Amino acid sequence: MAQLAKEVPYLSIVVPLFNEQDSLELLHNGLTRALRPYTYEILFVDDGSFDRSLKVLQAIQLHDHHARVIRFSRNFGKAEALTAGFRESRGQVVVTLDADLQDDPQEIPRLLAGLEEGYDLVSGWKIHRKDPLSKTLPSRLFNRATSSVTGLHLHDFNSGLKAYRRPVIKKVQVYGEQHRFIPALAHWQGFRVTEIPVNHYPRLYGHSKFGMRRFLSGLLDLLTVLFLTRFSRKPLHLFGSAGLIALSAGMILGVYLSILWFAGDRPIGNRPLLMLAVLLIVMGVQFITLGLLGEMLTLSAAREGKNIHHYDVFDSTALPLSADAEPSPEPHMGARPRP
């Protein structure tokens, strides 16, 4: 058994959980049946549960050498649980699913088939979702907004059932509530992302942790993702554009008030438009200055050797120069190449 535990598995199953004591044994049995054709490990990440989840997991781990348990000291959130599972995983392929029995382990081979087609991330789409309207309606609005902002058109960004190639989890970093944006962040990094319809079941035990607060925080995180994917390496494009708009509006109002003053429509010093014009001009200058400071920080990071480049090399056929080799000189203008 010790030898099997040291075997590097093909699959790593990461299961983040919080207070799911009644679901864990059934989930483990379902995973065991679905994963028989593969070498695998199951990483249960206990995100600070205060029910009997840990005792159930310890019993599972005692009888199954495939199972490993990661326990947090308190509840840190799903993004941190996934990150811990990714870091501890060893498989070439990592599959995530929720512990509430709403995801079907029998769908895992279909996700792997999607990876075999050349995709780097395959996400499950709960096409017939078994959740109340209070959960499905905000989710639809969120998915549409995320598709519009990120340019990646998926029906179910927040699906817990996903399969990743290892380079994806090594490259994409999440924090806060950004786990729901992993497909968008992977797409931005240049990975191929798709989704397939999967089965979805009603929750049998416990209650959903989803609420309006999570929906609102998701919209705020969407703004963060928008900034990270479009403006993190060119902050002046964002702040400079906003600054130019505010500055232009303020100057237009200033010109309008000047025309009124020269036309004899005085005084103008007590008009609210004057205060608005001054405010817009000051805001515009501040936004542009903030963008320039961001550009200076980006340049400083580049000079310090930090990775801020716009590209990632997946593979290369370029041959490195040997230690004794010297680069060939560039031909002079008009010189012919040797035959």
Structure description:
The protein is of the alpha/beta class and 339 residues long. It has two domains: 2-230, Spore Coat Polysaccharide Biosynthesis Protein SpsA, Chain A; 235-303. Helices cover 46% and strands 12% of the residues. The protein has helices at residues 2-6, 24-34, 53-63, 78-88, 108-116, 133-150, 166-171, 182-188, 212-230, 235-262, 272-303, and strands at residues 11-17, 40-46, 67-71, 93-96, 121-126, 162-165, 193-198. Strands 3-2-1-4-6-5-7 form a seven-stranded mixed beta sheet, with helices on both faces. Helix 6 (133-150) packs parallel to helix 9 and helix 10 (235-262) packs antiparallel against helix 11 (272-303). It is elongated, with a radius of gyration of 27 Å. The chain starts with a helix and ends in a 36-residue tail after the last helix. The model is unreliable at 321-339 (pLDDT under 50).
Summarize the model shown:
This protein is of the alpha/beta class. The protein is built from eleven helices and seven strands.
What strand order characterises the main sheet?
3-2-1-4-6-5-7
Evaluate the radius of gyration.
Answer: 27 Å
Distance between the termini: 64 Å
Strand element count: 7
The total tally of domains equals 2
For the residues shown, what is the average pLDDT? 82
Major β-sheet profile: 7 strands, mixed
Report the CATH C-level class of the largest domain. Alpha Beta
What would you give as the CATH superfamily of the largest domain? Spore Coat Polysaccharide Biosynthesis Protein SpsA, Chain A
Class derived from helix and strand content: alpha/beta
CATH second-level architecture of the largest domain = Alpha-Beta Complex
Helices, by number, come to 11
